[in-house]
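Researcher: Last one for today. Full complex below.
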Amino acid sequence: MRRTVEVRQSILAKNDRLAERNRGFFEARGLLVLNVLSAPGSGKTTFLRESVRLLAPKLKAGIIVGDLATDNDARRLRESGAPVVQITTGTVCHLEAEMVARAFRQLDLTGLELLIIENVGNLVCPASYDLGEDLRVVLLSVTEGEDKPLKYPPMFQAAHMVIISKMDLAQACSYDRKALRSNLRRVAPQAQVFEVSAKTGQGMDGWCEFLLKQRREHQPRTPQR
Amino acid sequence: MRRTVEVRQSILAKNDRLAERNRGFFEARGLLVLNVLSAPGSGKTTFLRESVRLLAPKLKAGIIVGDLATDNDARRLRESGAPVVQITTGTVCHLEAEMVARAFRQLDLTGLELLIIENVGNLVCPASYDLGEDLRVVLLSVTEGEDKPLKYPPMFQAAHMVIISKMDLAQACSYDRKALRSNLRRVAPQAQVFEVSAKTGQGMDGWCEFLLKQRREHQPRTPQR
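Model: Here's the assembly. Have a good evening.
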């Protein structure tokens, strides 16, 4: 499978160059950019809709959202009042820098300070694709099990922030905070961890305060990979 | 990206040939083979451990389990009493027919009637890789949201059975049966649907009866793709 490996490396090298171009563009526009990643069904869309709604009085955000099919998520995200562009990837299991570059040219960036990219729901493949973001945010819902950082290490190793979502279900699914924190310390000691429920609002204010602080101190960052 | 597409097609064509070889091997051994797929954290391992435990008096099963890292799942599955082989894929986001062929040669197949392959947790990529299985079983937990069949159509289009898992959490997460059934009818009208909770046992007897019937009437099948 040597030829496969070579082709994969050349695809990733091309993606990395286009990601750096995105990074330069974002810097010139003064945008803080998040790449938000998780398994399908971890609650990315609800979490982002609520984050943007809470941030709206202080920070103007735009959203790019990727899915294989449907524009369901774009419709849900527009309820936040933010401008949204949907990317549908067909069978492609991740977003690439080039898709993002096409998408942000469709957004009215005037006055935007925060750009959120909601990636395809997949805890494996999107980890390899830099999009030019400043911060990687990985969601893990309490219903998915505390062992996930150990079983999907590349995704967690590259995370700046880990959001434990659906805390309203913590009791119903016997969430073991101690076990999850211990697994995160092993795999992703660099990541800041937030526990939230977008449904009840738990932890959302703290998360939004953190984002506002990031925006104030914003410096473009080099990816951790 | 034309070259990429061509390389991908040649990888899939090679995989399809090796999958047919697996299919022939399984037929000769009289094995019913399941390829079990879902997003990370849908509860595949617990569901399979309980299925094998319930089936044990009537049907002898073996298990092959794929993960990027760790042998956690193999250890959990061994609690069922069945023989288990763990495949660790490193960064590869799906199982391939060749990996499965290496794995089943490490299993003692004597007396086995059912072989269960637990794929890597990923609702996108494994859909493209035939492993030589008879039946594709896709799990979707009630916590993941009713829109998933619409958003990840290739996985559901190729399913023979869809297992709605974690029914014990249905009320806590306001599971909407009608919406999910309607989405499944649109995307996967061919699939038989089971609602189960491996934790409480709900629906597990019906599922096991169904598997026993499949085993009795077993004929190797051609993949639906």
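Chain A has one domain: 2-216. The first strand of chain A starts at residue 32 and ends at 37.
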